[in-house]
Amino acid sequence: MPSGERRLHNRLAVLRAERGMSRLDLARALDVNHQTVGYLERGDYSPSLELALRIGEVFGLPLEAVFSTRPFTPLSEQVYGNGQASEASQ
Amino acid sequence: MNDRIPPGTQAERREFARDWIRQRQIALPGVRLSRFTRRIAVGCFYCLVAAMPIAYQWPLGYGFWLYLAAVGIMWAAVNFSIPAYDRIGDSELDERERELRLRARAMAYRIISVAFVVLTFYFLFAATTNFGLPMPSRASDAGGLLVPALWVVLTLPRVILAWTIPTPVREA
User: Fold this and answer.
1) Residue A7 CB burial class (10 angstroms; 0-12, 13-18, ≥19)
2) Is A35 on the interface with B (CB under 8 A)?
3) Which of A61, B14, B46, B105 could form a disulfide with A65 if both were Cys (CB 3.0 to 4.6 A apart)?
């Protein structure tokens, strides 16, 4: 478990929520235990390259869109920028 | 995990039920405990095991049976709070589960090897020197040491799993 090691950040929870998938659905698509999906989301487990590629395939996204060695910035911030996001909401 | 019983012969349904139970054993532990609670159970269990040489001297009475019941209950708590990774074949586990099982076995093997070497040197040293180091002199003393040692050897891989597996994630 990556407690003292470098942590791999991911967007699994967001991507899953966007597609209306439960952990169980994603686990079935990946052929893993649903606990494994939960641990991946929580950052308690870093996947192998094969599993990471399979996750990318399920979401139809490149690896770097799902995983990163640095914390992800919120998607709204990426789309609208920092100040524009609050302006757009008003 | 497919929960619907498929139409088919009785043998096919039985096979489905067996497979379903096996998958359920992997997916969910019998008792859902947090890692912290599991670690407390592991600590209590090994404290009880460490007290075995003392319990070994007790006469067969209520105290002894209560002690045995406590060992059994703590072992059950440890045993059923983790998925059955070590009772299921590789093909039915995913990469994380296989890694956890492999790591637990490797760590248990390392701990047992080190303990074996340390104890061997201790007994050699105690037997060949006159420092008055404690040594089992009677068969009952040796039994009182061997039985907990066997418990530790046999339970260590599962105990390490119970110690290391993170708190289970809720189904969502």
Assistant:
1) middle
2) yes
3) A61
Tens-digit pLDDT profile for residues A17-57: 999 998 888 998 998 988 899 999 988 899 999 999 999 99
Burial annotation B82-111 (CB, 10 A radius, 16+ → b, else e)? bbbbeebeeeebbebbeebbeebbebbeee
In total, the C-beta contacts within 8 angstroms joining chain A to chain B are 47
Torsion of CA B102, B106, B108, B109, to 10 degrees: 140
How many Cα atoms sit within 13 Å of B35 on the Cβ side? 10
Q: Do B169 and A51 touch (CB under 8 A)?
A: no
**Is B164–A48 a contact, with Cβ atoms under 8 angstroms apart?**
no
* Angle, helices B35-50/B139-164, rounded to nearest 10 degrees: 170
Return averaged pLDDT per consecutive 10 residues of chain B, 172 residues in all: 72 79 68 88 93 79 86 91 79 86 94 94 88 77 83 92 86 61
How far does the CA of residue A35 sit from the closest CA of chain B (Å)? Answer: 6
What CA–CA distance (Å, rounded) separates B33 from B156?
A: 19
Identify the bridge partners of residue A22 per DSSP, sorted by sequence position: none
**Distance between CA atoms of B13 and B23, rounded to whole angstroms?**
15
Joined together, the tokens standing for residue B7 give 């139409």
- Collect all residues of chain B within an 8 Å Cβ-Cβ radius of residue A8: none
